[in-house]
UniProtKB/TrEMBL annotation:
Protein name: PepSY domain-containing protein
UniProt keyword Signal present: yes
Signal peptide: 1-21
Lineage of the organism: Bacteria, Bacillati, Bacillota, Bacilli, Bacillales
Protein origin, superkingdom: Bacteria
Organism, as annotated: Brevibacillus formosus
UniProtKB keywords: Signal
Length: 258
């Protein structure tokens, strides 16, 4: 199972005050971007959520367009209400910038694979992060986070914050997992390759992780709630990076085939 960029390696699943949120710790560690980070304020008006953004000349997709795309993805794929999104922050990056920063943090075996990944052509991506007003001053705020491949306009990663109570369910219904993953990607007009799904052997606070391949050869990691088998996050390996030895060991020990 590959990861599409080095940020994924620092992903942590966090439970915040009875709400389920997938929080990417590495988001706060990114030290360089292609454009200055733009903070976008959401303003209420006429009962709707209006987002004001300054357009940027650099890049094929403006910040304004990126926020609109991110908002639509959260509505279409997660069914979330834009009124609850809060403040939008736009950041641009590329995995190459992060390889240099993280290289020394890994074991010798993992670092050797990272060096190989650093030789690959990696995509410029736009990260749109929606942060609620009450979380703005938090060092690692719970947020909705969307990553867009700037060259293709594809939503390659999405993490949704939901206010639903944590599920105490521990039993994993394999049929529901399969159906939920297939239906989720059907919405995006993507096909899941047959017999490639793997699921975590145990649940963590009512959530599970799922691995699968798309028919185009890219691999994906998803997080799913056992309460209603809804997807709260997914990551497509858009750079087709090689898996780290530590990742492969994790998959062997902690996942089973569906």
């Amino acid at each position: 199972m590959n990861k599409k960029n080095i940020l994924v390696f620092s992903m942590a699943l966090t439970i915040v005050g009875g709400a389920t949120a997938a929080v990417f710790a590495a988001e706060n560690a990114v030290h360089s971007t292609k454009n200055k980070v733009v903070t976008v304020a959401s303003k209420a008006g006429n009962g709707t959520n209006q987002t004001t953004v300054a357009k940027v000349a650099n890049g094929k997709i403006s910040d304004e367009e990126a926020v609109k795309m991110a908002t639509k993805a959260l509505k279409d794929y997660m069914g979330l209400d834009a009124k609850s999104f809060g403040e939008a922050r736009v950041n641009r990056t590329n995995a190459q910038e992060d390889f240099k920063f993280f290289m020394d943090l890994y074991s010798k075996e993992d670092a050797a694979v990272l060096k190989e990944n650093a030789k690959k052509d990696t995509a410029n991506v736009i990260v749109v992060q929606f942060i609620r007003a009450e979380d703005l001053n938090q060092p690692m705020p719970a947020s909705n986070r969307i990553v867009i491949n700037e060259a293709t306009g594809e939503i390659v990663s999405l993490t949704a914050f939901t206010n639903e109570d944590r599920s105490s369910e521990t039993t994993i219904d394999d049929a529901k997992v399969k159906s939920a993953v297939i239906n989720f990607f059907d919405k995006q007009q993507k096909n899941v390759k047959k017999n490639t799904m793997k699921v975590s052997k145990t649940a963590n606070s009512g959530t599970i992780r799922v691995l699968c391949d798309l028919e185009d050869g890219r691999d994906v990691t998803l997080t799913m709630s056992l309460k209603n088998y809804s997807v709260s996050s997914y990551e497509i390996n858009y750079d087709r990076l090689l898996p780290l030895p530590s990742e492969e060991n994790d998959y062997r020990e902690n996942f089973r085939e569906l």
